[in-house]
């Protein structure tokens, strides 16, 4: 009888823990987000559109590194990548997206791949970076 009560209480505690924990889970943005502080202008990033193309979060959001564990499964890039890079992170914000000439990197490589498949993805700096984005 005592074991049964203990098991019921333990099960109840686990259910509460799962429900409370799910409330802290990070959700993907439902609309565009603004990536600020780029010298050429901010980038209005349509998160839902990119999620639809990528298919899964892990395409863009890498796993956390041991030197800076993630606070959630998919954190905002700016939570770790700053300008300049803040130790222990060694990759500054701009480099997290593309190299200094925007000829290679996470964003531009994907855009080039999309274009090679007949889709229209911007590859010129001013197509994404706009001083008017605020």
Topology readout:
Layout: H1 2-23, E1 33-35, E2 42-45, H2 47-54, H3 93-97, H4 106-116, H5 125-128, E3 129-130
Antiparallel strand pairs: 1-2, 2-3
Keywords:
134 residues; mainly alpha; Cytochrome C3; 3-stranded antiparallel sheet; 5 helices; 3 strands; globular
**What is the class in the CATH system?**
Alpha Beta
Question: What percent of residues adopt helix (DSSP H or I)?
Answer: 25-40%
* Widest β-sheet, arrangement of strands: 1-2-3
CATH architecture: Alpha-Beta Complex
One letter per element, helices H and strands E, the order comes to HEEHHHHE
CATH topology: Cytochrome C3
Low-confidence region ranges: 10-24
Net shape = globular
**Largest sheet at a glance?**
3 strands, antiparallel
Please state the average pLDDT score: 82
Separation of the first and last Cα atoms: 64 Å
Describe the structure.
The chain has 134 residues and is mainly alpha-helical. The protein has a single domain, classed as Cytochrome C3. Helices cover 37% and strands 7% of the residues. It has five helices and three strands, in the order αββααααβ. It has helices at residues 2-23, 47-54, 93-97, 106-116, 125-128, and strands at residues 33-35, 42-45, 129-130. A three-stranded antiparallel β-sheet has the order 1-2-3. It is globular and about 65 Å long.
């Amino acid at each position: 009888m005592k074991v049964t009560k203990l098991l019921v209480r333990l099960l109840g505690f686990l259910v509460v823990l799962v429900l409370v924990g799910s409330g802290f889970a990070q959700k993907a943005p439902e609309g565009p987000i603004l990536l600020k502080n780029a010298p050429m202008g901010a980038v209005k990033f349509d998160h839902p559109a990119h999620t639809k193309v990528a298919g899964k979060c892990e395409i863009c959001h890498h796993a956390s590194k041991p030197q800076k564990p993630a606070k959630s499964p998919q954190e905002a890039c700016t939570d770790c990548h700053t300008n300049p890079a803040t130790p222990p992170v060694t990759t500054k914000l701009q480099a997290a997206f593309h190299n200094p000439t925007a000829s290679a990197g996470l964003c531009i490589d994907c855009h080039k791949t999309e274009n090679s498949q007949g889709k229209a993805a911007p590859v010129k700096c001013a197509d994404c970076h706009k001083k008017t984005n605020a």
